[in-house]
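Appendix B, example 12.
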Amino acid sequence: SNTRIRELSEMNRLLLIAACSGALVCFGAPASAVTYNQNLIADPTFQNPIGVGNAPNPWSDWTSAGITTHSTLNPIIGNYASIPFGGDLFQRFTPLNSSTPVTYQFTFLARNQSNQNAALVFAFQQAFGTPISDVFSLGLGKEIYLPGNSGFVIESLKFTLANPNFLVNELTFSNSYDAPVAGIEDSNNAPGTVIDIAGVSLIAFTSG
């Protein structure tokens, strides 16, 4: 259908951004209006094996839950990471610029392989953890809900950094967040829940 064609076109556009490493121009806008810089996420399509614990490659399975990578099917580019119940997938990077306000666009694809609905918590934080209440108050994280057998869906988060009180140098995805924090008490999924992540992109952009 035309709707399905539009969905696939949008998915390919976002995955192209995730896969590229050079300067990009925002699709549908004049080159002078919005300029995208390179993707700040290393290995956005999960070509490397996932590390374990405090040994990212550049991604790591913090809780040793058994996160694996698998080939995707068209139109998705590259591989996806499969996060089992209790898994925390993370990547560290050079701290994001916050000396002056900078706006970032974060985009990824998520899929719930399980029959039951599932919650996914993702956040930008300081390496080794930042209170989730601090992260959420700055708009650096989110809890999303994925229907059972959802298929890949596009998720995004736009945020502006302006001198937070911690370094922002780690991205994490959690299948069953393990802390009883206000606002995300329902993020513990049923045992056996599996959530897949693909096409991860983080881009800073400037208007001019």
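The chain has two helices and 13 strands. The two ends are 37 Å apart (CA to CA).
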